[in-house]
């Protein structure tokens, strides 16, 4: 963020733009050339180049000229807060931090992948348990309904609901007595129902 702001500070600074143009003009005057620009490394030499008479540096002459011909200019350093902060950055430390950040990001991605896999497995297992519980509840409900049907059938026959069961265990049922057992090889429950219907039909004659 500071680096981006530093570029903006230099781009928008009128004092810096004016100083660089004058610095280029002084350099062309001293070297007798008409170049259009210079490398920024040349700025570091501004404090080394001195005039032969007063031994003032090139920076001194630049500042003096700016005060005389551009008095509305600033001291330049005050405008370059982000520039100064960016210059103090230890780029080796920054590079190490970026490498560490990259490593931690990769580790975080691996961690998130494991969490996602666990969450998917948990959801699948949870759904299986819910389905099992639903089937067990339906089975219990069917068993309750079946018991009620047996009780109603026993009551309709005018006796103990468990009489049919005891009768089938203790002796021959009514169809066996009537000789229909071999004709209807059904279960005891179905035979009892058929017998009940036969009795009802006979009572209506």
UniProtKB/TrEMBL annotation:
Coiled coil: none annotated. Gene3D superfamilies: Formin, FH2 domain. GO terms for molecular function: actin filament binding. GO terms for cellular component: cytoplasm; cytoskeleton. It holds the Pfam family FH2. It comes from the Eukaryota. Residues 136-147 have a biased composition (Basic residues). Residues 136-171 are annotated as: Disordered. This is FH2 domain-containing protein. It comes from Teladorsagia circumcincta. The lineage of its organism: Eukaryota, Metazoa, Ecdysozoa, Nematoda, Chromadorea.
